[in-house]
Write a structure and sequence with these properties.
heterotrimer, A alpha+beta (156), B mainly alpha (200), C mainly alpha (170), A: 156 residues, alpha+beta, 2 domains, 5-stranded antiparallel β-sheet, 2 helices, C: 170 residues, two-stranded antiparallel ribbon, 3 strands, 49% helix, 12% strand
């Protein structure tokens, strides 16, 4: 095969491939939620104390508290709430406190990748199903027999 | 309200339940009840009174902090013993990093010595009073390395299987078997030697 | 008798062999006097130890020993309550994380029991967790009632009562 006959074929194949990839990408992008998913993130403090030391912490409603009945604490206070819009495969970071941030990424198939960042360092990467029905909560014990909870769910 | 006498008459499981709810008096009764056993386990492993005291104290503090985890799958005493053993193992590792291995110790670790030791016969523990036998065992345990003593403690006193010992000591089952074999053979030789010394 | 046979003898004594392996050892014991003598030595050593564990008494009074424990407990429990700015999650993660609470464990058991009672329900497939901090472990459980997956993180470093810490082999 001489060089002159190879070049047009090569260019043709490249062009076809590019168009093909573009179309495939467009179809995939169209099928995905172009407007992104709306994710609700709540940082909650679980405690047996009647009051939070911070007056700005709002007590969770009875209905919200009921959803956390699997935990042992009597009272839950909302420390921070944020709503983020996430687009497929685009990581979105949200600061929840001075030292803690979460990064969310829609990785497809209703799966959400959650990265837990503390003091600028990545400490946990979790991949879980999060839909309008299925939520994920990341939690851990805190001082004085209390706990922190990060509630993540998709909202309409 | 319960009196001290009431606490003293309660079984471990009820005391544990009270302590899990934050009752420190109940926990104190548990400490009083099992403190000698926990200290003894630490001392048997560490062979140092000060370290054994510190580690047994630490074990009780950890136990209080983690009492909610105790589900009653084993007895409280067993659970406590496991805590102190784990703390001792950690301490032994720390100590080991600080000391230089002797050639003799390395030889023991590599194996081979125990194969050359003559079989002890007859049983040197026969006819001994319980108190004297305990004393001899204690003296012999003192002469073993931490690794060999630990494997003996876990197998003979704690009744743990090879697999469980290997997991706790973070070594292979083969290493556990070799260490146990060496430790037992060395114990037999030491007990026989002690017997000879007493007879002379 | 080679070293492997010696270790097999010991494993037989400790009840760690399969039936087939045990038969090999009994054959060896029947035919080999050296094996019998060694077995006897291992046996009396084990019996002597099992039945005569040395006893030691704590060299401190009940009151004094307890006062030290109590002081230590109070010191460790005197940790500050999170402040306003304060619900610094990472600080909690770093400093105060305790192992999984009994409630979490009970929840797991409860959920397990519930799942058993609903055999027709499709099992929920948990996602993935990548630990990037070696000092922390996690337990995952799911509440089907709330359709919520919970990932509970806890400090594994001062692990006691269950496993030894992740240190090098001794």
């Amino acid at each position: 095969m001489n060089r002159r006959s190879f070049l047009p074929k090569y260019l043709l194949w490249t062009a076809c491939l590019t168009v093909g990839l573009y179309l495939a990408g467009s179809v995939a992008g169209f099928s995905a939620d172009k407007t992104g998913k709306k994710i609700d993130i709540q940082l909650v403090w679980g405690t047996n104390e009647e009051k939070s030391p911070d007056e700005t912490h709002k007590r969770l409603s009875a209905q919200e508290t009921k959803k956390l009945r699997m935990f042992k604490w009597k009272h839950y206070f909302l420390v921070k709430r944020a709503t983020v819009i996430i687009k497929p495969d685009v990581p979105t970071k949200k600061r929840l406190s001075e030292e803690c941030e979460v990064q969310l990424k829609d990785v497809g198939n209703s799966m959400l990748e959650v990265e837990l960042w503390g003091k600028g360092k990545l400490t946990r990467k979790i991949k879980e199903k999060v839909t309008k029905e299925d939520s994920v909560t990341i939690a851990g014990d805190a001082a004085n027999d209390s706990a922190w909870l990060i509630l993540i769910k998709e909202v309409p | 309200m319960l009196t001290n006498q009431d606490y003293a008459s309660q079984p471990d499981d009820l005391l544990v339940k009270s302590a899990q709810k934050g009752d420190m008096v109940a926990f104190e009764e548990l400490v009083a009840r099992h403190r000698d056993k926990i200290y003894a386990r630490a001392y048997t492993m560490m062979r140092n009174e000060e370290e054994a005291l510190d580690l047994s104290q630490e074990a009780w503090v950890k136990a209080w902090q983690r009492l909610v985890q105790f589900q009653g799958d084993s007895s409280f005493a067993t659970w406590m013993t496991r805590i102190v053993i784990n703390l001792c193992l950690d301490q032994i590792r720390k100590n080991k990093r600080q000391r230089t291995e002797s050639i003799e110790h390395l030889d023991e670790e590599l194996g081979g010595v125990e194969r050359q030791m003559p079989v002890i016969n007859p049983n040197p523990t026969e006819g001994l009073e319980r108190g004297e036998l305990r004393q001899r065992i204690d003296e012999a345990l003192d002469k073993l390395s931490h690794e060999h003593r630990t494997v003996l403690v876990m197998h003979e006193f704690e009744d743990l299987e090879y697999k469980e010992i290997a997991k706790r000591m973070k070594c292979s089952i083969g290493t556990v078997m070799s260490r146990l074999f060496y430790a037992r053979r060395k114990m037999a030789a030491l007990l026989a030697g002690l017997k000879r010394e007493r007879e002379q | 008798m080679n070293h492997e046979q010696q270790l097999q003898l010991q494993a037989y004594l400790d009840g760690e062999l399969s039936d087939r392996e045990s038969r090999k050892v009994t054959d060896l014991l029947a035919s080999n006097e050296e094996a019998r003598n060694l077995f006897s030595e291992l046996q009396f050593t084990r019996t002597a130890l099992v039945e005569n564990e040395p006893e030691f008494k704590l060299p401190e009074s009940r009151e004094f020993f307890w006062s030290k424990i109590q002081r230590e407990i109070r010191q460790t429990e005197a940790a500050p309550v999170p402040t306003a700015a304060g619900v610094s999650v990472f600080a909690w993660l770093q400093r105060y994380l305790m192992p999984v609470s009994v409630v979490a464990v009970l929840a797991v058991i409860g959920i397990f029991a519930m799942s058993k009672s609903q055999p027709t329900q499709t099992a929920y497939a948990f996602g993935e967790i990548e630990a990037l901090n070696g000092d922390m472990d996690s337990i995952t459980f799911r509440s089907e009632a709330e359709r919520m997956t919970v990932i509970y993180l806890y400090d594994n470093k001062p692990e006691v009562g269950a496993e030894v810490t992740s240190d090098s082999s001794i």
